[in-house]
Amino acid sequence: MGDSSSSASYIRMVHHLIEKCICFNLNKEECVKALEKHANINPVITSTVWKELEKENKEFFETYNKDRVERNIETETMERIQKMLSEAAASKTSDDDEG
Questions:
Q1: Who's near 50: CB < 8 A, 6+ residues apart?
Q2: What pTM was estimated for this model as a whole?
Q3: Distance separating alpha carbons of residues 46 and 35, to the nearest angstrom
Q4: pLDDT, tens digit, for every residue of 50-92?
Q5: Distances (CA, A) of 60 to 32, 65, 69
Q6: For residue 14, how many other CB atoms are within 10 A of its CB?
Q7: Helix (H) or strand (E) holding 99
């Protein structure tokens, strides 16, 4: 009985850590790697708990994954715009130096 109680406690801890990963906008693979590295949790356990959470919270994970993709696209777009502006500013500076 004590063993199943400690197993349940361990699963709850992994569940809690997965929720923390979600707060940091990590996907499943990133979460598995992070928990293995920082909490020494077997990737199979993290993956299994994540899958169960997905089953229990299907709509949440569909929205979460969609939002992650959209945020990544927005971030990439902002990085491209910043790069273009930096290049334009550098080009203008070199043009001013030549003129």
A1: 18, 28, 31, 32
A2: 0.69
A3: 8
A4: 999 999 999 999 999 898 888 888 888 888 898 888 888 888 7
A5: 19, 9, 14
A6: 20
A7: none
